[in-house]
Specification:
Blueprint (H helix, E strand, L loop, with lengths): L15 E4 L2 E3 L2 E3 L4 E2 L3 E2 L4 E3 L2 E5 L2 E5 L7 H9 L7 E5 L5 H4 L2 H7 L4 E4 L3 H9 L7 E4 L5 E3 L4 E6 L9 E5 L4 E5 L20 H12 L3 H11 L6 E4 L9 H12 L11 E7 L5 H14 L4 E7 L9 H6 L2 E5 L9 H9 L9 E8 L5 H11 L9 E4 L4 H18 L10 H4 L3
Parallel strand pairs: 8-9, 9-10, 10-11, 15-16, 17-18, 17-19, 19-20, 20-21
Antiparallel strand pairs: 1-2, 2-7, 3-6, 4-5, 7-8, 12-13, 13-14, 14-15
Helix pairs in contact: 6-7, 8-12
The structure holds MU-OXO-diiron (FEO).
MU-OXO-diiron (FEO) binds next to helix 2.
């Protein structure tokens, strides 16, 4: 059933001027309910495209999703002729911003396309054998395009959230075009942040799911943006931020700053999570915890996650230096709550964190290796082979667990222990 939600009050049927000679020519998508499959969009989204008119040139900043090409071109044609458009800026080449590019270029083949160094690779894939027909300029931080009495200056801001992302600054009007950065999925035809409904939830939800895994890069982007005079931020999705635009930059800075106060000083933090069916994996967890806790360099915490709600741990995990997961093997697999926790890590940066796995098993014991593979997939470093113990651990095996914990702590402290080689085991005796 086609839904027709009148969820864009006062939606502009045509283009909308957002500043002198700067016009919104984007598209409203009030019926969208999920974006990129994973994001819920409770009241849709917008695909914002802008047209900037200078005394000697006209630029289009980003386009829209392919299915909205008609609405985009119709708005554009009300404010400019194709033969006077000199520049197409593509701040980000994901299809929701470039879907209309082929149709646009068919009408304005003479424009100069400005993309970031990584953007050119995606543009080539987008245009395929037509790529060489167009004039493409690779732009970097500080490069400019003159439109006569208007100047566009580029800021290379990669990984917010694709490698290609950049921002564009309209110097004479202190107006920053940010594409996904500082955007949100919120559809309201009143366009401006001081006119639309309450989009605070959408703004943070978008950050959490799109930008949070790239906090480091968001910080680098903010380093470039914060020194600018900013009168308006024009993102690629959601409201145009004309009221208190700097508050949103400040808020992003807050969001990328550590959320949890810590008294650990220089100590590294290690979190041990486990689930146990018959108590054996719990015994292992306790011993690993004890072993790691012997180190003064590491603050170790132990959590039984059988209760199943992993969400409260995400902030903790994000700021931890090491993660250890304990799971029994049941039906040849790790248990579901462990998978739930591992899958929720997609929203945070895990690259480089220490990871380790352990667990008791009855027959086959695949779970530990599966968890290790997942951690490696998350680009965590897994320096110690996972620890598996058949059934309940013996006192000697519990000492192995303590030693495992000691070794993990030593890795975190930057002083990995020499591995003692059991020659009798090598000889098979
Ligand atoms: Fe709005 Fe990353 O695309």
């Amino acid at each position: 059933m086609t839904r027709t939600g009148p969820i864009a009050p006062q939606a502009p049927h045509g283009p909308a001027e957002i500043a002198a000679r700067v016009t919104w020519i984007g598209a409203l998508d009030p019926d969208l309910r999920s974006f990129d499959i994973i994001l819920k969009t409770a009241n849709g989204t917008t695909y914002n495209s802008y047209l900037v008119r200078g005394s000697d040139g006209v630029a289009v900043i980003d386009t829209v999703k392919q299915e909205f090409t008609g609405a985009f071109l119709a708005r554009l044609e009300q404010v400019a002729r194709y033969d006077e458009i000199t520049t197409l800026v593509l701040n980000h080449l994901e299809p929701d911003h470039t879907g209309a590019v082929p149709e646009f270029l068919a009408r304005a083949p003479h424009v100069e396309i400005c993309v970031s160094p990584r953007g050119v690779q995606v543009l080539r894939a987008l245009l395929k054998d037509r790529f060489d027909d167009y004039k493409v300029r690779v732009v970097r931080t500080g490069d400019t395009v003159s439109l006569g009495d208007r100047t566009l200056r580029f800021l290379t801001t990669p990984y917010v959230h694709w490698p290609d992302t950049q921002c564009t600054y309209l110097e004479e009007q202190n107006l920053l075009f940010t594409c996904d950065l500082l955007g949100c999925h919120y559809c309201d035809g009143r366009l401006f942040n001081d006119a639309v409904g309450d989009f605070r939830f959408s703004f943070e939800y978008y950050f959490d799911h799109i930008m949070r895994p790239f906090k480091r890069y968001v910080g680098e982007a903010l380093d470039l943006i914060e020194p600018l005079e900013i009168d308006m931020i024009a993102p690629g999705h959601g409201p145009v931020l004309r009221a208190h635009p700097r508050d949103y930059i400040t808020h992003y800075r807050r969001l990328i700053t550590k959320r949890l106060a810590s008294e650990t000083g220089d100590q590294k933090t290690l979190l041990v999570f486990y689930v146990s069916a018959y108590g054996a994996t719990a015994q292992m967890a306790g011993a690993i915890y004890e072993g790691a806790a012997e180190s003064d360099d590491v603050r170790v915490s132990l959590f039984d996650i059988e209760g199943g709600d992993v969400t409260p741990f995400i902030d903790l995990i994000e700021e931890a230096d090491g993660l250890v997961f304990g799971t029994p093997t049941i039906n040849g697999d790790a248990v579901r709550v462990v998978w739930d926790m591992l899958s929720s890590l997609v929203d945070i940066e895990t690259k480089g964190k220490l990871g380790a796995a352990f667990g008791s098993y009855g027959w086959t014991g695949e779970a530990v290796a599966m968890v290790e593979a997942r951690m490696q997939g998350l680009k965590m470093r897994v320096p110690e082979q996972g620890l598996r113990i058949k059934m309940h651990p013996t006192p000697a095996e519990l000492e192995d667990c303590r030693d495992f914990g000691r070794r993990l702590a030593a890795h975190l402290a930057g002083r990995p222990m020499e591995r003692e080689i059991d020659l009798s085991a090598l000889l098979g005796s």
